[in-house]
Every structure is written in structure tokens, then in C-alpha cells.
Amino acid sequence: MENIHIDNIYCNHYLKTKNLKKIINTSKYPIIENKLHTGLHIEDSIHYNSLLSNNFNLYNELITKTKQKEHSVKNFKKLIATFSIKNMEKIKISFNKNYNKFIIIDGVHRLSILLFKKYLKNKLVPIEYLQIV
User: pTM of the predicted model, to two decimals?
Assistant: First the structure.
């Protein structure tokens, strides 16, 4: 395996408010529902959609409501501005047999940026960008 198609990689979002749950209504891809979180295709993720719209309000609400103190809009924008594939930490993913998809453990920001900046040819993620755990 040299690549994994983007359609086989999902991320988990903890949609704790009605406003955050609205993203489900705009989803283009199948959603994976779970008691704790919602599995979304990376193109449906709040991270990626923040990049597309250049509006980080929903992203800020997500990280605030889920108490992700290590994240901020400022840090995300800095990552976007200084992003380098050469220096990129690998995206950690795990295969979920129940969903038949890879789930991002660490790296939703990075994968969103790779996709947004069109670093992925034919939506294929090279295996050297990934760490499968």
C-alpha cells in the first residue's frame, strides 16, 4: 500500500452544542454516529471547512466546548502560514473495523491543510505522511 484514499480517512468531532451539530446537515459524505462523537469525512470536518470559508468561528466553538486547551485559532492560523510537508509530523491514524475506515488519532489540522493546499494528488494520502497505529 503506497497511499490511502481520503475517502477512507475520517475524523472524530465531539459535537456538544446544537450549533456544532448543524455541520451534520451540510455533510456531503456518510456520517458515523457514536454515543461519544461523530465521525466525519475530512472534507466535512470543521477544520477543513474553516479553511475553505476562512471563518474560524465554528472551529473556535469546537475547541472551546471540548476544552482543547492545546488548540487555538491563532495556533491553527500559524500552522497554516508556516506549514511544510518536509517538517510535518506524521498523521496518526487507526483502522476501525466497525466503520471500515481509518480514524485520525492526531493530525486533523495537518490533513485538512494538505487537502486545502492541494498537496494530495487524486485525494491520495501518501503512506509516508501517515503513522498507522
Answer: 0.92
